[in-house]
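Async update (no meeting this week)

Hi team, since we skipped the sync, here's where things stand on the single-chain job. The sequence we agreed to prioritize is pasted below, unchanged from the tracker. I ran it this morning and attached the output directly underneath so nobody has to dig for it. Comments welcome in thread, and please keep replies under the output.
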Amino acid sequence: MGVSGILACSRNCAPLSAAVSKASAGVLEVSEIHTCQNMVKTLTQAVADGWDVLGAAADMRAIECRAVKLSKPTVLVLGEDVGSHMGTILLNILSVSRALLTL
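Output:
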């Protein structure tokens, strides 16, 4: 699963800084960073535009990532929110996702 960019919700993420760059182990230096105001709306629009959305989670329903065939541009949703609790935002993101994956 190669990564060509990173999408972060500007409302819920720390602002980019030297400390964030250091914590990213250099990823910020070599990746395109994209932001959105509303992750659920952005993911819903991505699906409408032909993208696939997958969520990474430590969940009994998740399947091994090697079992998924990627046939179109894909957004992989990562983060502590995915699979850790079932808040409204998480449920909305999961409703847009085609599948949950274990990494």
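Quick observations from my side:
The first strand starts at residue 5 and ends at 9.
The longest helix spans residues 39-48.
Reply here if anything looks off.
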